[in-house]
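During the reporting period, we have paired protein sequences with backbone structure tokens. One record among many follows, to show the layout:
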Amino acid sequence: MAVVLGDLNSASGLKKLDEYLLTRSYITGYQASKDDITVYATLSKAPSFEYHTV
């Protein structure tokens, strides 16, 4: 995975992930990949609604 997001269980890490995904659907590429699974597994719980988009 080329992108470095930091600690995804901290507010700053979640903010970086949120900003990164504003223009993307997946962490890398155009479909779900190992990178997406890795990021998902790293999250200790679902992010707050502050990071949800509709």
